[in-house]
Amino acid sequence: MGNFRCGPDSFLSHFVHEEMAGKPYLELEIDEHSADAGIMTRIEAFLDSIRFLRKQGAEGKTIITKELILGKTPGEVAENVLKTGKTLYLPPVNNDHVFALEAAFRANGINAKVLPETDVESLMWARKYTNNKECYPYIVITGDIVRATKQEWFDPDNSTFFMPAGNGVCRLNHYESMQRQVLHNLGLPQVELYAPTAEKALIDMGRVNLRLPIDCWTAIAASDCLFSAYRQTKPYEVIKGKTERVYEHVKKMLCETILNHGNIHNTMKLARREFDTIEVDKSIKKPRIGIIGEFYLRWHPYSNNNIFELIERLGGEVVAPSVGENMYHFNHTMMDDTKRKKKRLYWLELFLSGRWQKFHEHNIYKPFADFLEIYPEPSVQELEDLAAPYANEIIENEITISIGKARWLLETKQVCGIINLIPFTCLLGTPIAAMLKRLKEDYPDAAITTFKFDGGAEVNILTRLEAFMHQAHQYVDQQLTF
Length: 482
Ligand code: SF4
Hints:
By secondary structure, this protein is α/β, with parallel strands linked by helices.
């Protein structure tokens, strides 16, 4: 028995279904509109089906096993991938970070490949293998995985999928076991998932190969830096398309540097020089829009209806959070956790890893330090402090950094609008949406809104975004007339 749109139930119902395979069971989903009569009818029908099956003498057969749910540890899977040369398929999150990550894996002997971009076929397969109540990112990624397994080039005996996991209240911690179940049902139990937990992904990678986390962090930090430079420049370019060309070129340079273990600092210096060749006109002020919200959705253009491009088309500039911000946050929460549990050695490992990340990132960003207009950004602790009046301090997840980031951007007047991008029914995004209403009361001169996505038509998004951008333009005009 569950509540309508209950987050955990959307995943647990799959396990119940598998566990009960062949046996009758009743699932009641109740909300404030559920009428007694409807429930009674369903219970009666359920009891009838049990009586009928008893008469038939039918027996169910449980197929789910503990091994299927738990799978192997990330370390075991990674070692296997390294030893056997299996292909490690990465989800096609975006064109901004994932190819640099692919290069980082390849530089360390892992045959990584980014899956083809998400398309309608991915969603078609996803709808077949999900109940449409899970998180939208799960639906999309699962669709990409199933679509891959249907391709001629797919070799099940030599393939592994990369699916970062999580350890919190959020449903991310169910993705991997559910996808393992999907692969099992597809008749592909040999296909593994490499699922390091996001909170300690770099440390786990280091146990497999010391160089791997260094290259992965280089890929993330450098991609974040180039992405910010790209977004900040493109709306003001004088020659249309120039920023795009430069961005594509510097991304290729970055991938080659990572792949060949080249000098990242030289590459970033060269990238800066390339950005300097782009002529910009900043005489007309454009509304800057800060993006917060769910991690996958904000980075996956297919899932968010390419909203960054739409904002720019409507005359705005996008300020997106970095991927690195989430990595710092994971590190921070794990440190708090290990401190509470008195796991001193582990705490030290996290502390040193966090320090090194910061130091390395600082060096990577150096050539762009006087170029990026929103840099450096606040630490996780600062973001948590900023979020404190809106989010309870025991909330140790993306809620605090999203709210803290929104407040910092508004407080420092770096943006005139905030958009919270979340999947429909997201366990973290929904409270953020509620807290933003309070933030709006404190910052009445800012445009603040939430966009929820579930794969629906783009027209709704566009209409709402047009209204939002109209408001944001007005705020900019007001500021200019003061
Ligand atoms: S953040 Fe939201 S959408 Fe993403 S995995 Fe967690 S509950 Fe699902």
